[in-house]
Amino acid sequence: MIQRKTNESCSCSSGKRKNNKERPYKGIRMRKWGKWVAEIREPNKRSRIWLGSYSTPVAAARAYDTAMFYLRGPSARFNFPELLAVDGPLDEMSAAVIREKAIEVGVRVDAERSYVSGSQVESCWLQEKPDLNKNPEPEDPDRDYR
Fold this sequence. Notes:
The structure is a single chain. The chain is of the alpha+beta class. The chain is 27% helix and 14% strand. The protein is built from three helices and five strands; from the N terminus they run H-E-E-E-H-H-E-E. The protein has helices spanning 12-15, 57-72, 95-113; strands at 28-30, 36-41, 48-54, 115-116, 119-120. Helix 2 packs antiparallel against helix 3.
């Protein structure tokens, strides 16, 4: 007879749960490099719908809420039920259309949150990149840095 080892002291309810600092909203997670991503499982399927990658957890959660609304209707549990805005009929939609609508909301929220104290944060791709093939100009032209 084969005996199976059981770990009776394991509390499964707290074993794999993340704390609220890591996952402040439902349907999102943080990548190792700091971006927040959202995805949602399709009803009655094993597949997931990728909802995008965002710089803030709020934007990812809003994208999740939008997809949740189109998949499960107005009675679903949302992260921000008071901020839900629907711009069309609640007919059955394809995963691609749901993804598109969710990403649209998430990107808009990210853009709104990129304003810091009234001025827009300059995006990294808009900043001037240094030419790495040139020697840098010395700060003090009279001093020789070699």
